[in-house]
Amino acid sequence: MKRKEERGLSPVIATVLLITIVVVIALIVFLWIRGMTQEAITKFDGQNIQLVCEDVSFDASYSGDSLDITNLGNVPIFGMNVKEIGEGSYTTKNLREESLAWPETGLNQGGVFSDTMYFTGEEIVLIPVLIGESDSGRKTYVCDENQYGYEILI
Amino acid sequence: MFSQIKHKKAVSVIIGYVILVSFVIVLGIIVYSWMKTYVPKDELNCPDGTSIFIKSYECSSNTLTLHLSNNGKFNIGGYFIYVTNSPQKELATIDISRNNTDELSIIRPTGIKFSGLESGNLLKPNDEETEIYDLTGLDAIYSVEILPIRWQEEKNKLRLVSCKDVKIKESIQCKKACTPALDPSTSGICGSFVCGTAQNGTCGAVSCGADCNENFFCDAEGQCISSLCTPALDPSTSGICGSFVCGTAQNGTCGAVSCGTCDLTNALSGCPSGSCIVSSCVNDWCNSDGIDSNGCEAPIGTLSNCGSCGDVCTTGTEVCTDGSCTSCNGVWISPENTGVECDGTPLPANCIANCTCTGGYVSNGIGGCKIPNFVNSCTSYCDFLNYNGIPPGECTNSPGNCVQGGGIYEAFGDQWCTGGSQADTCCCKL
Predict the structure, then answer these.
(1) Of A65, A96, B185, B328, which has the highest C-beta tally within 10 A?
(2) Per CB distance under 8 Å, which residues of A are interface residues toward B?
(3) Does residue B378 belong to the interface with chain A, where contact is any CB pair within 8 Å?
(4) CA end-to-end span of chain A, whole Å?
(5) Is the pLDDT of residue A25 over 90?
(6) Which chain A residue has its CA at the smallest distance from B39's CA?
(7) Beta partners for A152?
(8) Using CA atoms, how far apart are residues B261 and B160, in angstroms rounded to an integer?
(9) Per mean pLDDT, which range of B2-11, B65-74, B219-228, B244-253 is the poorest?
């Protein structure tokens, strides 16, 4: 009967413990989920680079085996992926690697690119590649093809 | 005892609220720090109503002059400028901002700012600006694209902003001029030859210089233009370069198309767009009819092409002499010599009645002079001669003297005059 009246923990300590456990669990869950999601890459004072892709603006043409690109916007285009779509297949090339004419620092404001390129597919899609900052340093980001891809029929 | 425990509170209500609010705030901060990068910001762009246009341009052999005008509602700071060097190019990618003759207006690495030293939006609405570009080293220019820029404040910083929505494109014809060939005989400058438009009679064929070879040629206007054919895509095969026929030659490889051998009469030929054309004529020949297929069919030095192709002498009043049109007017002194020039040379075919008759002679209406109609007797003729400073004499029938005598032989007749100081002067009735 005496033991029944004994208390295990004071309410204060129990509450503190409870909160601590909840916070720790929340932290673990947060870190776990964050690890599953993409690392945030930012550009221009902390703006997510996915949003910066919306501001990318360029013009392009392909004629006479010459691929021409002009950066019309205010976002430097670090690289450009070229998705060459053929019959039932596609290949993707990076202009930074494929062409010596691509500027080392990318296409800045008003920058132009022109080089002889040979594509045999039916269509090419130009997908801009941006570079931004992340916790682990500078990282490139390929803008969404469906939203920001520039299609050119060959 | 049990009721005592039941009524005990773990923490006070205030502390509970504080903890709860703190917890929410902490969670809010965590979520914000995670999501803050996704907060959209206004895109950097020029205000609606920004606009620029090319009012006019002039193009000389090595200079492009653009007259730009701000036809928008906002000031403009400068622009990016690109040109194309091929008519087949859809997009201009040759940056000529470094070719601007005003060094102070060049922005590094690219771009042009208005009004030199200052960086600001200095071109006001309705203002105009003239920009001059040195085209040395550039080939023909077929179009120019201009992308206006402005300096705008963004987060207390002045930033250069491209006005991407108001880029303009203008087709221009700015071809490279040819340089007349040097005179090999004098090793000097080839006079005042007009490259392309005039044949170089002394210096040989007009050339456009060493950098106008292979894929270029000197056209009839004296400009160096591309001679490469760019085949269009075969629509039936959706992009496969099939059996294109470019001019007379077959292009089966999608490469540069040639026109084969262009054998045009009296001409140097070129193949700018798949067919043989006259690029220039050989010496003393001219493509007068403008038809390429028959080459240079007309000789230089005629009334139609006197000094050069298209140099037409005025009918009736001019004659082509030594490559230049000169007046065929003259003073006629021999009234019967209709059909000859005043100095006795045959009347040029192109010359009709327009000579000045002197000494009382009058125009015969067909290019010569004649004795006036009122001179219809020997007496009146003697008077006519007297009028011309010959003393009158006695009139006598003497056809033989008219034929054989010395002095002025006028025509067959039956009378002659003697007397005075001109006793041997024949005077024959008209």
Answers:
(1) B328
(2) 5, 7, 11-12, 14-15, 19, 23, 26, 30, 34, 40, 42, 45-48, 50-51, 54-55, 57, 59-61, 63-64, 66, 68-74, 108-114, 122, 153-154
(3) no
(4) 91
(5) yes
(6) A47
(7) A124
(8) 53
(9) B244-253
Q: At what angle do helices A11-36 and B13-35 cross, to 10 degrees?
A: 10
Share of chain B above pLDDT 90, in %: 3
Q: Are strands B416-418 and B331-332 parallel, antiparallel or unpaired?
A: unpaired
* Residue indicated by tokens 């509170």: B9
Look at residue A22 and give its three-state secondary structure: helix
d(CA B293, CA A127): 48
CA distance, residue B253 to nearest chain A CA (Å):
13
The angle formed by the CA atoms of residues A67, A70 and A72, to the nearest 5 degrees, is 155
Residue B301: pLDDT over 60: yes
Query: What's the pLDDT tens digit per position in B148-157?
Result: 999 888 878 7
How far apart are the C-alpha atoms of A35 and B397, rounded to whole Å? Answer: 139
Q: Which amino acid is at B184?
A: P
Cβ proximity of A111 and A60 under 8 Å: no
Tokens of B94: 């040759």
DSSP-derived 3-state class of residue A65: coil
More confident call, A139 vs B362: A139
Closest to A44 (Cα-Cα) out of A53, A35, A31: A53
**pLDDT (mean) for B289-311:** 84
Residue B34 burial class via C-beta count within 10 angstroms: exposed 0-12, middle 13-18, buried 19 and up: middle
pLDDT reading at A95 higher than 80:
yes
Residues B429 and A11: their CA atoms lie apart, in Å, by 160
Residues in B closer than 8 angstroms to A114, CB to CB, are 93-94
Please state the ipTM of this predicted complex.
Answer: 0.75
Q: How many beta-carbon pairs below 8 A join chains A and B?
A: 107
Q: H or E element: which one contains A33?
A: helix A11-36
DSSP secondary structure letter of residue B112: E
